[in-house]
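agent: user wants the structure for D-alanyl-D-alanine carboxypeptidase from Sediminicola arcticus. delegating to structure tool.
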Amino acid sequence: MEKIIISKNLYAHPLSMNRIILIFSLSLVLAGCSASRQRRLHKNIVTIINSRQFKNQFTGYIVFDPITKDTISNYNSEKYFLPASNTKIFTLYTALQLLADRIPSIKYISQNDTLYVEGTGDPSALHPFFKDSTLLHFLKKAKNIALHLNNFDGNSFGPGWAWEDYDHYYAPERNSLPLYGNVTFISNIDSLRIIPSYFKDSIVFSTAAKKRKLHQNVFYFDSLRKDTLEVPIITYANLTKELLETATHKKIELVSEMPAGKKEVLYGILSDSLYKRMMYESDNFIAEQLLIVSSSTLNDTINSTIARDHILVNQLSNLRQPPRWVDGSGLSRYNLFTPESMMIVLQKMYAELPKDRLFSLFPAGGKKGTLIDLFKGNPKPYVFAKSGSMGNTYCLSGYLLTNSGKTLIFSFMNNHYRQSTNNIKKEMTSIFELLRDTY
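agent: tool returned. relaying tokens verbatim.
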């Protein structure tokens, strides 16, 4: 009945029908203009991609409007690329899906007069940057402490990591209860300072190229050096026990298993503080441990593979190009991701998180993190993205704000080039500015 009344009104007032026709015609014109604009924009971007700078390499990208669901431009977006630290975007998404507002620091059971403790992989315990003492204060209250370290079912290093990086700050070992970031901090600004002090007698003054013995926690430090040296330690159960004993001033017993019963969880620092450190500084250690912590919410046995498989089978089962995803940091050259898959994960986070919080987790062009000197806005940042760099590789994926007030999602991957990375960044800047100014 309602449709009949509307129909009569239309015939009774010819101008109403004319108005409808006019609006419909204008919408077609506007849609055509928008499509034409997108075609021109895509053509201009492809022209840059086909220029000399990108000629002798493998490049792929996708630019997507999350509101209209339009792909603005793409090129090789379904091809697989080595992502480097763009892998951390998948790690961030995993942590956001599986972890609470605060990081689970340990699991424990109190039985009689003994506190039984096992790690969750929390990377913040006694870390000099975070200065979180949650674990320390908790353990100091216990009469007797029993430490279970056999719940980590993984390797110290990720698959495909370069063995010669063992003494570099960016490649600490992975384990269930990391302490001090699994790194020794050595500085000689006013006087020699070592964190943890446990290793004060393990420092050898030397100008050797390597900063630690391959199979021993003996560290080499140039006495003339004035900045802080960070050197990964070799982790093992007795060392973890002794470091905790030194910090708590309590005797600790190592046990082979936890007693039967429900495990309680001690929560530590705010999760976002770890996410920001991982994303701003591209901290590989935090990335690796976050996947392990995420797995602790799914299983008593912790392993980054558990978290990765869970996310791919559940939240990311719709990816048209499932990644080869082997670690949390992107250190491995075994990782393979497509720009399209990267964009889909970014789109999911954009839909699920408040924009202010989401953008606060990413480096801002010209303002903070690894992008502090790149993609500068005038006066405000317009790029919020995670970079990924290693030999012959530079990738950048994230969010771009246009002058018209729109947000675009992009993933831009460059592999196998032999030229300067600065040249790649310069050409990418011209593409991003084109998107910012014309969309």
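agent: one observation worth passing along. The longest strand covers residues 102-111.
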